[in-house]
Amino acid sequence: MADLVVEVIADRMGSDILLLDLTDVTLIADYFVVATAQSERQLGAIADQVARQLKEQLAVTAHATDGTPASGWIAIDLGGVVVHLFTEATRARYRLEEFWQDARTIVHIA
After folding, report:
1. Please, are residues 12 and 46 in contact by the beta-carbon 8 Å criterion?
2. What is the pTM of this model?
């Protein structure tokens, strides 16, 4: 599931995509996918496409989705995988990946 999310984000031209393995760090989730969109519009399009492709290809729907393109951060809870999509400014402000620096990086697409 996490690999599909990374693929969809890359196809939608998301940048600085990280897939972090959290299995030895926390019980919150097994994986985080963190990525940046260049605009609010792109942020919404990526989130919509992630949801669409997961439903079509894996019959998976999100447990919860929080945030809006206007907020600069959309989080999608897929159970074992949590997706964090940011605008550049919001990602720089929150520096989420620094909080999870003990997690193993599986994929990093700059």
Report:
1. yes
2. 0.94
